[in-house]
From TrEMBL:
Organism domain of life: Bacteria
EC number from the UniProt entry: 1.13.11.93
Similarity annotation: Belongs to the 2-oxoadipate dioxygenase/decarboxylase family.
InterPro entries: HGLS, YdcJ_bac-like
EC class: oxidoreductase
Lineage: Bacteria, Bacillati, Actinomycetota, Actinomycetes, Streptosporangiales
Keywords: Dioxygenase, Iron, Oxidoreductase
Signal peptide (UniProt feature, chain positions): none
Protein's name in the database: 2-oxoadipate dioxygenase/decarboxylase
Cofactors, names only: Fe(2+)
């Protein structure tokens, strides 16, 4: 029997979740609390709670985060996720988004087809160290770091062989699928191999993220994120259970209008026992704080115009709070007031102003007679209904905020040095495959749905 990419992805997400729960027990608590909150929201809101995805999808939904050190390692990751129907979407430069030292660029591997997203939207935010950026790594350190990274092997050849076969053939037979899933899960387990104390500490002085990537002989899951329908309730409940959360929820504020984009928070990185090799050769046990428990609430995907408005409001919030010390609640109140003044308060207004993405569907109980040609008239007249498209991607500033909130130190960044040019085109070259633009993906899903609705109404394909 053939195990296709969808089944491989769903099985891998389950196995990774079970593994991570064993390694980080507080993650299991996070998942339990998220499911409690989701049940309560479903009981309270009924069908409206599932407007941005069925409760089955939301319950199964996870996003993981991993970090690699070299273009070779990132290209191998792309092959492994490609076997599971997950493709690179978006470009995130955390070097610029973070105020502390985070010398990485990132993409997210995820499904791109609407049906595949509905079946299982597992996504992995994947960061690559930019060793050539002189703001972080001087020439001597860069040379030694690249030598260390070039010498290690994160993924066994057999895993890559199976990944290539699965992607080429659309899946694997049962035995090969089991071997693939076992090897893939094992590759992201926390290693028990000793870490060189001196080497790790040298990198940590530059960046805790750089040390987590380049100071260890393997990679691992940094966090695995469940989805919750009310992140404010979850934040309060986790704190009530005595789990230390980061200071604030990242992303848009809590406000009276539709949920947009992505809100994220996490519990703080926990001290985990690790083996260290001292300079004199002794192996001792100590701890590291690099892994944390993130949770997210997903909203509606926004158009480029909607994203521009979001960025304007984020800048306005920074200006409004400049020089002030405020707590998370006051910050949210200021942000919410800005949103109330500038952001449409209904889905209909968001659609009418082309600020967010929706799918369109011919109404079952539509009016009699000939339908109008224009989309606005079709919506207003009840000929067509609009359903929001879930935001499947990430916000660089929010990702940087989560990273920063869990760093042991801010590290060091020499702003007098020139940064390394590494943008979307260069990253696509590293990956050896298309780097998808998320806006184009959302727009294609919207256009396909509108074409179907117009066909059902007997209208020509062009919107009048």
């Amino acid at each position: 029997m053939m195990v296709d990419a969808t089944a491989l992805r769903a099985a891998f997400a389950r196995r990774l979740s079970a593994m991570y729960g064993t390694e980080v027990p507080a993650y299991t608590t996070l998942v339990e609390v998220a499911q409690e909150v989701n049940r309560e929201v479903l009981d309270r809101m009924g069908a409206d709670a599932e407007r941005l995805g069925s409760i089955g999808r939301v319950t199964a939904e996870r996003h993981g985060a991993i970090r690699v050190g070299t273009p070779r390692e990132l290209a191998q990751v792309a092959r492994i996720f490609g076997a599971m129907g997950m493709y690179p979407v978006g470009f995130y430069d955390l070097r610029e988004a973070a105020s502390s030292s985070v010398p990485v660029v990132s993409t997210a591997f995820r499904p791109v087809d609407a049906g595949e997203l509905a079946a299982n939207p597992f996504r992995v935010f994947t960061s690559m160290l930019v060793t050539g950026d002189r703001r972080f790594f001087g020439e001597d350190l860069r040379r030694r770091l690249e030598a260390f990274l070039d010498a290690r092997r994160l993924f066994p050849p057999r895993l890559l062989e199976l990944a290539d076969r699965a992607e080429a053939e659309g899946g694997l037979d049962d035995a090969a699928a089991e071997e693939f899933l076992t090897l893939a899960t094992r590759s992201f387990e926390l290693s028990r191999e000793p870490v060189s104390r001196g080497w790790y500490a040298e990198l940590e002085r530059v960046s805790a993220v750089a040390a987590d990537i380049g100071g260890v002989p393997s990679t691992h899951v940094n966090h695995l994120t469940p989805r919750v329908l009310d992140i404010d309730a979850l934040y309060a409940r986790m704190s009530g259970r005595g789990i230390t959360m980061i200071d604030a929820i990242q992303g848009p504020p809590r406000w009276s209008g539709p949920d947009l984009l992505l809100r994220q928070t996490s519990f703080r990185a926990l001290a985990e026992p690790r083996l260290f090799r001292e300079d004199d050769g002794r192996v001792v046990e100590d701890d590291l704080r690099v892994r944390f428990g993130e949770v997210e609430a997903r909203g509606i995907a926004v158009t480029p115009a909607g994203r521009a408005l979001y960025d304007e409001l984020a800048a306005a919030l920074d200006d409004a709070l400049a020089g002030r010390r405020v707590d998370a609640e006051e910050r949210n109140a200021v942000a919410a007031a800005l949103w109330e003044a500038r952001v449409p308060g209904t889905e209909a207004e968001l659609a009418a102003r082309d600020l967010a993405y929706f799918t369109f569907h011919a109404a079952k109980d539509r009016p009699a007679g000939a339908p109008p040609a224009g989309l606005a008239e079709l919506l207003a007249g009840g000929w067509v209904s609009a359903r929001p498209i879930v935001y499947e991607d990430f916000l660089p500033r929010s990702a940087a905020g989560i990273f920063q909130s869990n760093l042991t130190s801010d590290g060091a960044k020499d702003v007098t040095e020139a940064g390394a040019d590494l943008g979307p085109e260069e990253l696509a070259g590293v990956l050896g495959r298309t780097l998808h633009d998320p806006y184009e993906l959302y727009a294609a899903i919207r256009a396909e749905s509108l074409a179907r609705a117009r066909e059902e109404l007997g209208l020509p394909g062009e919107v009048g």
